[in-house]
Amino acid sequence: xxxxxxxxxxxxxxxxxxxxxxxxxxxxxxxxxxxxxxxxxxxxxxxxxxxxxxxxxxxxxxxxxxxxxxxxxxxxxxxxxxxxxxxxxxxxxxxxxxxxxxxxxxxxxxxxxx
Amino acid sequence: xxxxxxxxxxxxxxxxxxxxxxxxxxxxxxxxxxxxxxxxxxxxxxxxxxxxxxxxxxxxxxxxxxxxxxxxxxxxxxxxxxxxxxxxxxxxxxxxxxxxxxxxxxxxxxxxxx
Lengths: 114, 114
What we know:
The structure holds 2 protein chains of 2 kinds.
Chain A: E1 4-7, E2 10-13, E3 19-25, E4 31-38, E5 42-51, E6 54-57, E7 64-66, E8 76-78, E9 87-94, E10 104-105, E11 109-113
Parallel strand pairs in A: 2-11
Antiparallel strand pairs in A: 1-3, 3-8, 4-5, 4-9, 5-6, 7-8, 9-10, 9-11
Chain B: E1 4-5, E2 10-14, E3 19-21, E4 24-25, E5 31-38, E6 45-50, E7 56-58, E8 64-68, E9 73-78, E10 87-95, E11 103-104, E12 108-113
Parallel strand pairs in B: 2-12
Antiparallel strand pairs in B: 1-4, 3-9, 5-6, 5-10, 7-8, 8-9, 10-11, 10-12
């Protein structure tokens, strides 16, 4: 049982480049989300999805796009990377998004934008 | 604005000392409360959760937390810490009527010295 799988683990981008962070879960969870973790700021919600075809913005959505075409996958796209997007990104999933089920986290992607 | 506050950013203590980490939130209404832990180099894991019922909840590894509704607090405690408890601890809150929006505190880095 793989749980939540994130790829890549590390990535370096130049300002203006685009890329997609991949996230897949094999637990048939309806809810998936993306967080960024920055020192002294905890985890901040970027985007989330409560089911295939449904996405919504979190606390810090600017500069990021998401889509949810399948239950398993929830990719995060950076269209034009900026140094302010240097961070560690975590994907998480849960059975539902109501808060009654805890989040299962991936191992994270460390992104550096130069 | 809704917020989650963790008052201690860094805590250093010796093995066998007692630990208490504060968490306050500013949400109105009914909430679900969580403590997550992130060991060095690892992803976040659920330590314990409160949904309803007994306000004193017990989690893994000897941790417990007390929900005090009148104080909007959910403090984490452990009577006697071990070196292996060195980690970053995050409080998280969501309203029970709010789909998908789990909000994290900034985290508390705990270092336990042998």
